Amino acid sequence: MEILVCVKRVPDTAENEIVVNSSGSDIERADLVYSVNEWDNYAVEEAIQIRDRVGGTVTVVTVGDEESEEVLRREMAMGADKGILISDDAFAGSDGKGIAAILKAEIEKGKYDLILTGAQADDGAAQVGGMLAAMLDLPFASLVNKIEIVNDATIQVGREVEGGNQEINEISLPCVLSIQTGINEPRYVGIRGIRKVASVEIPVHKAGDLGIDAGKVGKAGAKVKKVDYFIPPAGKGAEILEGSSEEIADKLIELLKAKGGIK
Amino acid sequence: MALQIFALIAHKNGAADDSAFELPVAAKAIDTAASVTAIVCGAGADVDAVAQAIAGTYPNVWKINHPALAHPNAEALRLALTKILPKGAIVLMAHDTLGMDLGPGLSIKLDAAFVPDVVGIEGLDGSILKLIRQEFGGQVSTHIHCDITDGAVINVRSGSFQATGETVSGAVADKSGEIGEIQPKRKYIETVVAEVGDVDITKADVLVSVGRGIEDQENISIAQELADAIGAVVSCSRPIVDAKWLEKSRQVGTSGKTVKPKVYIALGISGSFQHLGGLKGNPFIVAVNKNPKAPIFQVADVGVVTNLLEFVPELTERIQEKK
Ligand SMILES: Cc1cc2nc3c(=O)[nH]c(=O)nc-3n(C[C@H](O)[C@H](O)[C@H](O)COP(=O)(O)OP(=O)(O)OC[C@H]3O[C@@H](n4cnc5c(N)ncnc54)[C@H](O)[C@@H]3O)c2cc1C
After folding, report:
1. Complex ipTM, two decimals?
2. Helix H segments across chain B?
3. Is the CB of A37 within 6 Å of ligand 1?
4. Which of the residues A81, A171, A203, B276 has the least number of beta carbons within 10 Å of its own beta carbon?
């Protein structure tokens, strides 16, 4: 099975406080800790497990700047066989459709049976997988939390739906799936693994290499544009308890008692 | 010509989802002069029941009763919708598991723009629709300009628009005959219902809920000790279940359980909308989080900005002392 996994380098929200810059044009990126998008990590782990069961290769691809190479290396240290960096100034400002169009061009250069994306990334958009599938005219399932290979032509996938229920579908290959967290336990990547792939060459593909019309992607081709970032006007907001931790604990105990929170 | 807006109605067991009553409010926010049509898809008697019921909310209702739409399948739905939607249509749907499955691909097939998970609509400026989204789990908001010249698919976050309860007497049109044959490459097989765990968090009056801020499986004991001291039950956010630190039946949220406690103590939970989606009945919320900007503080009643790993054991000890 030839598997392609689309990954993205994103600020780690669990580690960072996200702050809007003074002009509102972007978030403050200077001191951010970056990592692989959480959902993508599950997708790569799943791809590796499938390859180990049925054979084939796992390729990881990202559209990003030079620094995005580090997430490709991390996923290769995890066990992906190949990495491809798609990088070109012309791609800046692409909307979801632009990114999907760029990935489509790369995918059409290869021959993949299974294409995986994360269910969503830092912008919570959950769009690239579904768009990519529609552009390639391939079947698609989102929020996949189970994959069973039936044979060369068919797989069974579980989709997570509301209330933790699971919807089982049969899909013909090739297809595109977006992967939900919890499908597996992504393996730990140690320093040794990272070192092992440190010198592996990662090809960089530009708009020209992929035959992409620069006017159709990037800012020029985007129907959906992000104008600015802002902090929403504060709503009701919590009463923040102040004082020493003993004082805070005592206040909290009183409040909990009053609200029936202590039996 | 007036803008044509269509709202895709999510429904289950013959009843429309709450989002069905919120989407007309979103449609009004786009353009008060637009024609608004609800689309109810499915198979069997449910479709008629939902279409009739929703005609009290929408002036126009299209119903599509088709065997290929008997079970959830975004591909079949997309094939059906692309046959009947006019060029340039604005399509609204909930940003739920169906909307996430359907919206992106539908926008490509309609050659329309796509904006997911919209939380606010500021209206039209010529062919530019001004929208509001959030990023980074709700830590920051963004203004979005969407060119709707060729139409758009807009997924709306549930609960972002307040249903008005306004009623109309809408007309139901049967569009089933226009669909013809549909042969999706993805076939629905069955729905596996979530397992019931040993503890029922939906029945608890007080929940001590842990999120990724608990950092380690061993630290769950910190929450358990607090819960024991106050007579509460331990629940959690999704990453805790993904890491297999607690079982799925303890997860609060849209893809977990809906809970209605009197008091909800959120420890190291950022407050993403999927998590808060499982919290109903307006409980008294206490949030302990080291990030003062965490979105949970917007919905909490009381907040403590601190490292929970140090604070919670102290709190528990204090409660035990006072007993
Ligand atoms: C389709 C879909 C369905 C989903 N369904 C659900 C669902 O049902 N339930 C759910 O919960 N999520 C769900 N999610 C995931 C959701 O989007 C968030 O990723 C998740 O809720 C985040 O969990 P969290 O708040 O525990 O972690 P994070 O967002 O990582 O937040 C951790 C918080 O802990 C704080 N913190 C860290 N260390 C400490 C410390 N020592 N002391 C105090 N505070 C600390 C941080 O400041 C941060 O605010 C779903 C996602 C998708 C795409």
Report:
1. 0.96
2. 19-30, 45-54, 74-84, 97-110, 220-230, 238-242, 273-276, 296-299, 308-322
3. no
4. A203
